Every structure is written in structure tokens, then in C-alpha cells.
Recover the amino acids of this structure.
């Protein structure tokens, strides 16, 4: 494996191979929570945090599983770690800030089934990243996810005032915007090398 | 097909009115997981760049959906309510691991082109939502039919996307070249952006159909 600088890993995960717009991971919250700017920002923060913790745990788990020679347990153990991290975050937010807890509502437990989080854990294992590299990779992925969510939320807030035909309203329109965003993100290709 | 339909129309009517048949039919069209419920979008967009990948992904998801629905439904009296989501995810993860190894044994090339997305079936919202919304409340036979219908509907939707993207973006269908050599490929269709556009256009067509049906 060729050496990659930390800066390159960060740019790659956040912009060039943005998790939402290039890998299509985390599309469900992307379509579901992107209606309002405020919830989008908070959701991005929560997802980034879970991503960071589960990525670190996944690194430890992977070394452990390799040591005991049981790679077939990888998927199951990753998902258990993610589910418990989400549970932890949920309890923490409930205790520290009940207002934020109510604002996020049902989407907080749904972070467990956010493909982007499991995606980060799996990709970093496939790429053979070390501890520091995994950390930076998760940081970049979280930043990219939050960026995409905020961009689309801003566009959708504007579109509320636009006069669009009834057939196009809803998911189809959001997907069209996402397509255009994805095209423009292709302009980042080659950055950070 | 249409001939047998007219000959046995009484039989087909009776079959269509059975509640258990309805569990099967609804996933194909009326509650299609992709076009109507907009569930499980990640694999739909990510691996639909060729028809072959799309079909393989659809079949793998259908298998996991079937097995997990059957198991969840048969264990529905034993799983405590508080830990049900965690138990469902564990059941799903087990079957996904099996599928992952099976695909690797059948075709290494296919496993390589689908990549991490086979493992990511675990977090496909469609499977968890069927387990939670249907299998945990219904008997094994009905859960089986529901999973079969939803799985086939999901595969159909993936195939629709994959076929369009491969024909326009690559000029081929299942690897067969369709157009003469001077055909200019629409590169954008196999890029991520093409996935968003194709799905948006399919949704538009579905919406237009629904709107027309509602009017008449």
C-alpha cells in the first residue's frame, strides 16, 4: 500500500469521494432530515461524533479479530459497536440537553442504520489504515456528510418558495438537486494529491 | 400469459382477492420499496451502474430479506420488546455474512465489483423496516410472502435503474454491445450523478402515473 498523507485522506473523504454524493452512503437521513437547516446541522454533528467513536472502536476490534483469527465476526461486531455507541450518545444527549434530544427525535436511534457509519468502518479496514489515519478518515467523512446535508438543506429551504409542478415535488426534486450537487463535487477530483 | 388469464379469469380473480396473495402483490407495485416507499436507497444508487451488478445486488438483498423475515417472524414471541431492534440487526448481520461468503465462493469478480456494498446490506433500511413493521406482527407464511414480494419489487427497481444506466453510459446490456462503434457513451450516467438523475426520472414517471390514475 502506498503511503498517503493525512491531509490527503481528509480531503479525499470529505470532498473528492464525499460519502453522500460519490458513495451514496447515508442517503436515508440525507433525504429525510434535510428539510430544515437547523436539524440538518445537528444531525450532521451527531452522525460525525458516532462515526469518530465507532471508527476508533472498529480499528481496535479489527486488530482483535485478526489476532483471534475470526474475520467472519467482523460485520456482526461492528454493528454491535455502532448500536451501543448510538445508545450511549442518546443517553448522553438526553441527560445533558433535553431540548436537543427532542429536536432530533426519532432520527437519533435511526443513526444506527446509517450506512455511512458502517461504511467508514468497513472502508478503513479494507484500505488498511492505522489508528491515526482511521481517525482522520472518520473526521473527513463526518465533515463531508455534514457539508452535503447543510448544502442540500439550504437549497431545499429556498425551494419552498419556488413554484414547481406537483409531479416533481418531494423526493424526485431532492434527487435532481443532489445529482447536480454531485456533478459539481466532481470538480474536486485531483485535489489534495 | 394474457391468454391463460382470460381462460382462467375466475381462478385469477379468486386468487387476487385472497389476503395472503395481497401481501405478495403489494411489494411489486403498489408499495414498491424503491419507487413508492423510497427505502434502501444507498445500494440502489451505488451498485446500479450495470444491469448485472443491479440484478446480483437485488437477489442478495431478497435472500437476506426472506431469511430474516422468516426468522424474525418465528421468534416474534421470544424476543423481548426492549431489545428487538438490536436482535433484528444481529439476525440480519448473520445472514449478510453468509451471503457475503457465498458470493465470494460463486464469483470473485462479482464480489470485487460489488465491494463493501454486500456488507452494507446490513444497514439497508428496507430489511429492518420489514422486520419491524411486518414480520414481528405476522405469522411465518405471510412474512414469507411479504418478503418475497418486497424482494422482487426491490430487484425490479434496481434492474430498471441498472439497465438504463448501462445502456446509456456504456452502450451495452449485460455486457453485450448494443450500438455501432461510433456511439458516444454518456459517461455521466455511470458516474454517481447519473444514479441520482436516473432515479429522479423514474420517480417522476411513477408520480405522473399515479397522478393520472388519481384523476381518472
Amino acid at each position: 500500500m502506498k503511503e498517503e498523507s493525512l491531509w490527503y485522506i481528509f480531503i479525499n473523504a470529505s470532498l473528492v469521494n464525499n460519502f453522500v454524493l460519490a458513495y451514496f452512503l447515508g442517503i436515508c437521513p440525507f433525504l429525510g432530515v434535510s428539510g430544515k437547516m437547523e436539524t440538518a446541522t445537528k444531525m450532521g454533528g451527531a452522525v460525525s461524533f458516532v462515526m469518530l467513536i465507532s471508527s476508533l472502536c472498529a480499528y481496535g476490534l479489527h486488530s482483535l479479530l485478526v489476532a483471534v483469527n475470526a474475520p467472519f465476526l467482523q460485520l456482526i461486531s461492528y454493528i454491535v459497536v455502532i448500536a451501543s455507541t448510538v445508545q450511549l450518545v442518546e443517553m448522553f444527549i438526553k441527560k445533558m440537553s433535553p431540548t436537543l434530544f427532542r429536536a432530533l427525535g426519532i432520527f437519533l436511534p435511526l443513526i444506527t442504520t446509517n450506512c455511512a457509519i458502517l461504511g467508514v468502518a468497513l472502508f478503513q479496514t479494507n484500505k488498511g489504515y492505522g489508528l491515526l489515519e482511521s481517525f482522520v478518515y472518520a473526521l473527513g467523512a463526518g465533515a463531508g456528510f455534514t457539508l452535503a446535508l447543510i448544502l442540500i438543506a439550504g437549497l431545499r429551504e429556498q425551494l419552498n418558495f419556488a413554484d414547481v409542478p406537483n409531479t416533481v415535488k418531494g423526493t424526485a426534486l431532492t434527487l435532481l438537486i443532489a445529482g447536480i450537487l454531485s456533478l459539481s463535487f466532481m470538480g474536486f477530483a485531483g485535489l489534495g494529491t | 400469459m394474457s391468454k391463460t388469464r382470460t381462460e382462467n379469469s375466475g381462478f385469477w380473480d379468486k386468487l387476487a382477492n385472497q389476503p395472503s396473495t395481497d401481501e405478495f402483490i403489494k411489494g411489486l407495485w403498489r408499495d414498491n420499496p424503491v419507487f413508492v416507499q423510497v427505502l434502501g436507497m444507498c445500494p440502489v444508487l451505488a451498485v446500479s451502474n450495470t444491469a448485472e451488478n443491479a440484478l446480483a445486488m437485488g437477489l442478495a438483498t431478497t435472500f437476506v430479506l426472506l431469511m430474516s423475515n422468516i426468522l424474525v417472524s418465528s421468534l416474534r414471541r421470544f424476543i423481548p420488546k426492549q431489545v428487538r431492534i438490536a436482535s433484528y440487526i444481529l439476525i440480519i448481520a448473520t445472514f449478510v455474512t453468509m451471503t457475503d461468503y457465498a458470493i465470494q465462493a460463486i464469483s470473485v469478480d462479482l464480489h470485487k465489483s460489488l465491494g463493501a456494498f454486500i456488507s452494507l446490506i446490513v444497514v439497508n433500511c428496507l430489511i429492518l423496516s420489514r422486520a419491524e413493521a411486518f414480520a414481528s406482527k405476522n405469522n411465518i407464511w405471510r412474512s414469507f410472502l411479504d418478503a418475497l414480494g418486497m424482494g422482487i419489487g426491490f430487484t425490479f427497481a434496481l434492474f430498471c435503474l441498472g439497465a438504463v444506466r448501462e445502456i446509456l453510459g456504456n452502450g451495452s446490456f449485460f455486457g453485450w454491445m448494443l450500438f455501432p462503434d461510433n456511439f458516444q457513451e454518456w459517461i455521466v450516467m455511470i458516474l454517481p450523478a447519473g444514479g441520482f438523475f436516473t432515479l429522479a426520472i423514474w420517480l417522476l414517471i411513477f408520480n405522473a402515473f399515479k397522478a393520472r390514475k388519481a384523476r381518472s
Observations:
- The first helix of chain B runs from residue 2 to 7.
- Confidence is low (pLDDT under 50) at residues 1-8 of chain B.
